[in-house]
Amino acid sequence: MTPGPTVMGIPVLSLVTFLPLVGALFLLLIPAAKTGVIRGFTFLVTVLTFLASLPLFTAFKFGQRGMQFVEKVPWVPNLGIEYHMGVDGVSVLLILMTTLITAVAVLSSFAAITDRVKTYMALLLVLETGMVGVFAALDLVLFYMFWEVVLIPMYLLIGVWGGPRRIYAAVKFILYTVAGSLLMLVGILYLYFAHHAAFGEYTFDLLKLYDTPLGRTPQLWLFAAFALAFAIKVPMFPFHTWLPDAHVEAPTAGSVILAGVLLKMGTYGFFRFAMPLFPEGAIAFAPLLIALSVIGIIYGALVAMVQSDVKKLVAYSSVSHLGFVMLGLFALNAQGIQGSVLQMVNHGLSTGALFLAVGIIYERRHTREISEFGGISEIMPWFAAVFLVVVLSSLGLPGLNGFIGEFLILLGAFRMNTWVAGISATGVILGAVYLLWMFQRVMFGPVTNEKNRGLPDLTRREFWVMAPVILFIVWIGVYPNTFLRFLDVPATELIERMSSRTVAERTAEPEMYGGDEPGDAQGMEEGDGTMPADTAGTMLGRGMVEGETGAQADSAGVETIAPNPPAGSPGRVTP
Amino acid sequence: MNLPIPIDAPLGMIEPLLIVCGVAIFLLMLDLVLPHGKKHVSGYVAFAGLLWALWRTLAQWGMSERGYAGMVALDNLSTLFNVLFLSTTAVVVLMSRPFLEEENVEQPEYYSLLLFATSGMMMLASGLDLITLFLGIEVLSVSLYILAGYRRNSDASNEAAMKYFLLGAFASGILLYGIALVYGATGTTNLDRIGDAIAGTGGPVPEGLFYAGMAMILVGLCFKVAAVPFHMWTPDVYQGAPTPVTAFFSAGPKAAAFAAFIRTFFIAFGPAQAEWDMVLSVIAVLTMVVGNVAAIAQTNVKRMLAYSSIAHSGYVLVGLVSGGVIGGTGAVFYLMAYVAMNLGAFAIVILLEAKSGRGEELKDYAGLGFKYPLIGILLSIFMISLSGIPPTAGFIGKLYLFGGAVQSGHVWLAVIGVLASATSVFYYLRLLVLMYMREPQESFPPVKIPLALALALLVASVGTLWPGLFPSTWFSAAQESVRSLFS
């Protein structure tokens, strides 16, 4: 728990969080007519933010448990609210992804946004502050503040610069999110007073609240309150209906950030808050959440398949992919959780890139109807190549990033329950179907629509928009260990935290899953397998076997998994 | 020996009240000497008088005194509320200029009435006796009846005044009857001694009589804070009254009635909380739900803000139900936040109304945000705060208010409260939709912000953002004020 390095005397986390906000304030000084200056300045700020976030990556101490780069200053002492920031490996990856995606999103909107550029750019910067803050905050009120700060800029981005149904989409987006998060606020307050009742201290410090003793019933309610807020954000089936509207209507950069980062706030919320704070609740709700994840995977894929609008297709594919992320988390074992977190990053990159690609053709043709296209690969060969890589990454081709994440998730799911893994795996196949079918209809075949002739290929700027994303897509696919090694300790810690706080109840209640949900009771027969504390040894062997039969590209990933220490022993990490 | 003044009549403890009354009377006399065309000078006098009273009030922070045969208290609660009232009135005075100019009714009596109303509010906040409370309510109400009808040529304004007068007179009657019954049951009108009596120190209290009296006092106070089902007057009066008066209505008198509410129900009826807990909880729920749901349907901004002010009364009532220092602190902090953000919202309405003759209807706001960025940003801040989204005072207020409810075991109240505020997001942010996402229907006349309004907006926005970002000081003040009640 030592403070991390500083940049120019400013602690890294604060710098990364508030640099965009400061940039937004300076932006207000630039006259609105100088759009060129505004665009350049904003891009500069986001690039600087990305650079400022790199020390998190380079100076990160692997194998060290707990939070790093911690900053802790009293903020509202009489309420126990602190400015408490800190990151573990999961947050580091998500923050890096956020700063990268934001810079890319800004660059991508240079040509697309010509109206009210200044406000647009300022909102993007405020949004970045909120997003980074969400991933770094370790105080529940601070977290809640960042969480809500994200809403207003996104609301305006969709509502002002969006498509024809933008107002409907914006209002739906904000109402869904606010309704969920306000219930979470009540949950936070309950936890706060429960902590006071137990320890006599008023605090919103997450790390202290982890130790708050809670009975089973409050845990169930509190988990439900938190889970609702996060499930809406993810979004899990059946709370997903805001997503296609928001994604389709938002401007390209808005969709990229929505899909790339905002949805991860939901899954991250499960990882950081809902699961470790209320493990009993998490385990009790796991069957339900797994069922919803699997439904989401299949449903999202099937609906994506029948879309005639490329952007809608990508939006529904998010529902499917996020189902995988949730499945991995609630597999409740190291592989599942690691895969899940990696898949959060993967989805941010792949789906972000898909939206960018859709944006590129939309800017040329002002339509996204699949039937309007065909044979584009002849006209725009460079674009075709880039788009192909992105599509393949999204459908999980070995050698690209999506494969590693999905493989680990399915591995974790398999260890938990064969049926669940089997059904979810069809989601991968369906993913290949709808993505490749779309790619085929848009890119291959004869050029049937005369309007498509003479479309210009990627511009230099568009190339540089896509290049960094593709770089990471390939990097994660070929050598995932660079990123997976960030996830060892956090995954172990989550499992330990959950098992240490449920052991008492487990011995008292051997039939923990006692068939509360008849539909899922069968799925949880192997309940004990979900807690690797006692079965990690045997599971490790299985993981190795699976890994060897897997494709060569993931060997690095398995290397990381294999030495995973059984939960309960101190974290040990292989370089 | 008959002394003209009772012995325990320390004038020092009511100094701010005396200043306000004195300036009000001075203004009436000033009217006689000011020539036509110079009447606006009275505004400066009123403003200066308020600042003077404010300065004297701030000096009273931390003092604790009782006087006038135990009928008047000086404690941190009264001081804090006095600061709130004086600042509210000062801001309303700043906001009134454009309206009075426009309507050509700039008379010293307007400011004088505002100050008399303020003195009534101050009496309410420091009243330690049901009689003092009633006196305060009457001084306040009579001034408000006139102010509501100040736009003499407007039918709506007259209707508002008449409605408010009739209903207000009824409410005062019921309140007074309740006071009489409580006096009959306990033999005293002193709040402390009523509390002692029902705690059972002086023998049994006739229950039927006492509960009937308590219920009537509850009704009277609920009318003043516009709690459902005693809210019917609010939308019409808010819509019909001149906009600066509406702003005043929604801020000062409401806070004053809550100050009386806190004193009466925490001190006098505190020992009987088990009896009124459920009643007040139900009223709070109704108020939050009806206020927020009805606000959605409004197309007139003043009417929308009227319903929103009803909803906010509901939130504060949650704090009262929670009780104790935590509940009381939540209520007081929320009132401070509410007054700031609500005054801010009304200041914008006044600004648009006075300079363009529009701004009362929601559709008048279409496309405003990009046309006038500053007005857009300010109104957005106030709306975001009203809907309880951080980093604003409205959020911290709700955090603590609902925290109190959770802590005191009223989790269900907190849940209904947050669901109600989720509903409110819809209509508050509708203004943002209009301002930023719709094209203006016709071109706007140029809007220049007069200095007085700019100052009012500055105070309101600081009062909205500062407690949202750094609530510590404000929070301590609220906490100290409620603690002084129990010491």
Shape of chain B: globular
| Morphology of chain A | globular
Mean pLDDT over the residues of chain B: 89
Order of strands across the widest beta sheet of chain B?
Answer: 1-2
Helical segment tally of chain B?
19
Number of strands of chain A: 4
Structural class determined from secondary elements of chain B: mainly alpha
Average pLDDT, all residues of chain A: 81
What Rg of chain B do the Cα atoms give?
A: 22 Å
Can you lay out the helices and strands and say which pair or pack?
The complex is a heterodimer of chains A (575) and B (487).
Chain A: E1 6-7, E2 10-11, H1 12-27, H2 35-58, E3 68-76, E4 81-87, H3 89-112, H4 117-136, H5 140-149, H6 151-161, H7 166-199, H8 206-209, H9 216-233, H10 242-249, H11 252-277, H12 279-305, H13 310-330, H14 334-365, H15 376-379, H16 381-395, H17 401-416, H18 418-443, H19 460-478, H20 481-484, H21 488-508, H22 518-521, H23 532-549, H24 555-561
Antiparallel strand pairs in A: 1-2, 3-4
Chain B: H1 15-33, H2 41-59, E1 65-67, E2 72-74, H3 76-103, H4 108-126, H5 130-148, H6 155-186, H7 191-198, H8 207-225, H9 233-240, H10 243-268, H11 273-296, H12 301-322, H13 324-356, H14 368-371, H15 373-386, H16 393-407, H17 411-437, H18 451-469, H19 472-486
Antiparallel strand pairs in B: 1-2
Helix pairs in contact in B: 1-2, 1-4, 2-3, 2-4, 3-4, 3-10, 3-13, 3-18, 3-19, 4-5, 4-10, 5-6, 5-10, 6-8, 6-9, 7-10, 8-10, 9-10, 9-12, 10-12, 10-13, 11-12, 11-17, 12-13, 12-16, 12-17, 13-15, 13-16, 13-18, 13-19, 15-17, 15-18, 16-17, 16-18
